[in-house]
Amino acid sequence: MSLNRSFLTLTVALGTLAAPVAAQESILIGIDAAYRPFAYVEPSGALTGFEVELAEAVCAAIEARCEISNVPWDGIFTALDSGAIDMVGTTVTKTAARMEAYDTSVTIYNVGYGFIVPEGTDVSGGMEAIEGQAIGTIVGTEAYYAFIRGMLGEEADIRGYDTIDAAVLDLDAGRIGAVMSDNFQLQDQFVSTGDYVFVAEPVFDPQWTGDGRGWIFRQGSAELVARMDAGLEQVIGDGTMDEIAMRYFGMALSSE
Amino acid sequence: MLEVAAPYFAFWSLGAAFTLGLSVAVFPAAVLLGLASALAFHSGRAAAGAASIYFAIFRGLPEILVILAAFHGVNILLRTVGTGAGVALPTIDPFLAAWLALAVQFGAYAGVIMSDWLRIQPAGLSEAGAAVGMTRSQIRRRIVIPLVLRGATASLGNLFLVLLKVSALASLIGVEELSRRTAIVSGAIRDPLLAYSIAAVLYLMISALAEIGQNLLERRSHRRGGAGA
Amino acid sequence: MSGVLASPAFWSAIWQGALVTVSLTLLSMAAGVVLGAALAAMRLKGGPLGRTLAWSYVFVFRGVPVLILLFLFYYGLPRVPALRGTWFWDLVLVSPYRTALFVLTINNAAYIAEIFRGGFVAIPRGMIEAGRAVGMTPRQVFARIEMPLALRGSLGSLGNETVAVMKASAITSVITVNDLMGGARRVGDIWLEPLTPLLVVGFVYLLMVMGIDYAVARLRALPLMGGGMAQR
Questions:
Q1: If you measure CA to CA, which chain A residue comes closest to C96?
Q2: ipTM value of the model?
Q3: In this complex, how many residue pairs, one in chain A and one in chain B, have their CB atoms less than 8 Å apart?
Q4: Is residue C102 situated within a structural domain?
Q5: Nearest chain B alpha carbon to C168
Q6: Per-position pLDDT tens, chain C of length 232
Q7: Residues with Cβ < 8 Å from A92, sequence gap 6 or more?
Q8: Which of C68, C93, C201 to mutate to test the interface with B (most CBs of B within 10 A)?
Q9: Checking CA distances to A29, which of A8, A89, B206, B220 falls within 20 to 30 Å?
Q10: SS in 3 state form for C43-58?
């Protein structure tokens, strides 16, 4: 039908307007830059943060031209599916479901799981300090729930919150005994303030934490994945990643 | 508290300007589509059926669905066509996708408004045009369309206010207008309460501005309407 | 294209999501009509203070996009420690669904207030004077003449508002509500088919609009609504 054809012509024309043909060689990386210190925007509008610098370092290492764009988390996988980006540069947990549906990079870093309590709480006995108390965490995060039950028993009183900040507000109010989340979030936002302490060292056991975090690609991207993996191994090996992580998190990352 | 957000005000104001710009870019296209579909609706031919289907579909579809469908649909289409033809076609820019989706959707809203005005337009006016020897297209251009546009000014002004708010949904596909920039600032300063409160005030300011403009426009069109209006 | 369509999880998400969308729409309309009527009454008969308050309410909640209101109430307000343990926390902020319902309601109440106000203003003076002439008290005039007439005059607009609320509810998925749109999209994401769910969901929305239009037509035909009288 001619209507269809003219629609097609119009959209092709619009698309051509949007991105010049020269962009063909670039690797399009989408990162949701709304989460400091992982990825955020400076007052000047420039993207920055750990994930942004890591992607830039890898692209430099493999001498690839990369275009990093700021894509909302809500639409990041659809943007990947539809071809608007080639790679999700937000470091996401490599869950079984994601690994089945997408190609993934090597594990960039592992997250540890831990509990925090207000500073001044007696944590000399480790987990004993919070046994029998209500634990706050992020609602609907299956892995977190399993970890809390594994540490404190099946009967653990788990309260789900929409954001970690909401959970910590209830911790301040004394309505829960501890907050459980990943070590970055807890270290960077709470322990670093001096008002909270870890109950014990964060746990890095893959039984709980899975395959760590990495980048996500469309299926069939083997060639691109191989290039990015090579770059990742280089920046992890030569200490570049540790240096970036020190600046943003105040600690090195474990990619074991 | 405000000091944290202050460095972002320039970044943010650009987002607010972008919100206004997106709506201003969409609106003329929507009015043209609306006018064309309203005229088609009253043409009494197959085009009338097509126009009423167009109205019915976009009256029922949520704007966010249309925006997502335009963005992902066009990209998938481009990729399929590109793969078939063996060339790498670029992807559609989120701004263009949002523009396309909003123009088509608000074109249907504008079409409903204008076909209401066409319905109540006295036939005598067109007949008078014919009596002085105007052709059909002259009657359309010099009598029917100007009268519809003047009659619908108030409703179209309200539609523009709705468009300003609905354009916030473009943020979900990554258009960096006021809402998306608010999410970004909120993530950077880690204070959603402050960020979204400021965004709410900015939207109110934009709406108030648009409302003032609408009042001026309405007054002007009334004046031009003369004693009869 | 067919992968996701063959998945029972997809159709179950559509069904569950449709229920959420319908309940959000109906509950928010019911609460919005009550709140909107109160606002319209304040605007018309509330004295200078009531008028100003009602006007400000309408200005603010019509002027700020629902998307911003959702984020403000869901992510912003929980940052206020003083709200913890208050009735507002326990009743509204405690879950995404309730926050969504609350936001949709305060938003549509602003529109409904304007619809009712228009309905009252449009009542011919003669009707009210006729009521007084036959000896009705002001209260009776309000209950037996103004209210029914305003309601009948507003019915079409209320139908359109119901459609608008249903469409607005499609963005509550940004605060993790699994409504028709959000639930179906989530399943579509798993199947790597972003577009197919949108087409199916769009069809369901159109069906629901037909349902709303049918309900409004049936209400119009009720004797209470002046069924049998000439249409406006």
A1: A162
A2: 0.89
A3: 105
A4: yes
A5: B62
A6: 457 888 888 999 999 999 999 999 999 999 999 999 999 999 988 899 999 999 999 999 999 999 999 999 988 887 787 887 788 887 888 788 999 999 999 999 999 999 999 988 888 889 889 999 999 998 889 888 888 888 888 888 999 999 999 999 999 988 878 899 988 887 776 666 778 899 999 999 999 999 999 999 998 888 666 544 444 4
A7: A98, A213, A214, A215, A216
A8: C68
A9: A8
A10: HHHCHHHHHHHHHHHH
